[in-house]
Amino acid sequence: MYQKAHFQFKQTIVTILADKAEYIDAAKTEIIKCRLIIEDYIAHDPFFEATFEAYDMDETAPPLIRKMIQAGNTFDIGPMSTVAGTIAGAAVEKMKMCGASFALVDNGGDIAVYNKTDRPVVIGVYAGAGSVQNLGFSLAPSDKIIGICTSSGTVGPSVSFGKADAAIIFSQNPSLADSAATALGNALKEQGKESIEKALSAFSNISGIDGAVLIQGNDIGFAGNIPRLVNAHIDYDIITKG
């Protein structure tokens, strides 16, 4: 039986799952720490928060900040495109270090999960009421932290310049997964299957990206290695949101 908590610190709103309550407390502490590091750096340079373009690497910045810059620069977009995945990944990493066998943080659709149990975990997809329904991905147990990050131009408050209902990235680097999901969503400029295939083609061979999924209406496209697809009942009420 997993422990579950809804947690908010300023603009960061997450759902945390773990096999013991003590690991949830560790995740909360790490989330606060990450937020304060990011806020301190923004106070030092507000452009870090404002830019939608690549940001010059600052070798003197804290490791968390350098990770965000590197992930954003991979796709020539701003470092804040990685913020949710980066915080989720850091919190799960902390839970893993503390001894958790199962740890998951859902930061508004940007998810990091560590599952060293003997059972798979199913991650459901919500791409809007009019899009693909009852779809989930079954993640096999692994000793790696997996990032599953989603961007949308039609669902939720995140900034997207594309027309995807859901652009989903799988990566062992949650920061990179978040940035890539934003970039993939931005790449879908038109409606239709050909546009989906064109947008996905650029993400097939990017180092660090395991797989990509793009959903628009009832159309869905795949690239790379995707976890096993399963039927999943998506309960809107348990989706992390403000």
Assess the beta-strand content as a share of residues. Answer: 25-35%
Please bin the fraction of helical residues. 25-40%
Distance between the termini: 26 Å
Mean pLDDT: 90
Cα-atom radius of gyration: 17 Å
Helix and strand element order: EEHHHHEEEEEEHHEEE
Spatial strand sequence of the major β-sheet: 1-2-3-4-7-8-9-10
CATH architecture descriptor name: Roll
Which fold does the CATH topology refer to? T-fold
Name the CATH homologous superfamily: ApbE-like domains
How many runs of DSSP E, i.e. beta strands? 11
Instruction: Give the CATH class.
Output: Alpha Beta
Q: Compute the number of structural domains.
A: 1
Shape: globular
Uncertain residue ranges: none
Number of distinct helices = 6
Structural class category: alpha+beta
Main beta sheet: strand number and arrangement?
Answer: 8 strands, antiparallel
Verbal overview:
This protein is of the alpha+beta class. The protein has one domain (3-238): ApbE-like domains (T-fold). 32% of the residues lie in helices and 27% in strands. It contains 6 helices and 11 strands. It has helices at residues 21-44, 47-50, 63-74, 83-97, 174-187, 193-201, and strands at residues 3-9, 12-18, 102-107, 110-115, 121-125, 135-139, 145-151, 166-171, 211-216, 219-224, 228-231. The strands form 2 sheets. Strands 1-2-3-4-7-8-9-10 form an 8-stranded antiparallel β-sheet. It has a 3-stranded antiparallel β-sheet with strand order 5-6-11, with no helix packed on it. Helix 1 (21-44) packs across helix 4, helix 3 (63-74) packs parallel to helix 5 and helix 4 (83-97) runs antiparallel to helix 5 (174-187). It is globular.
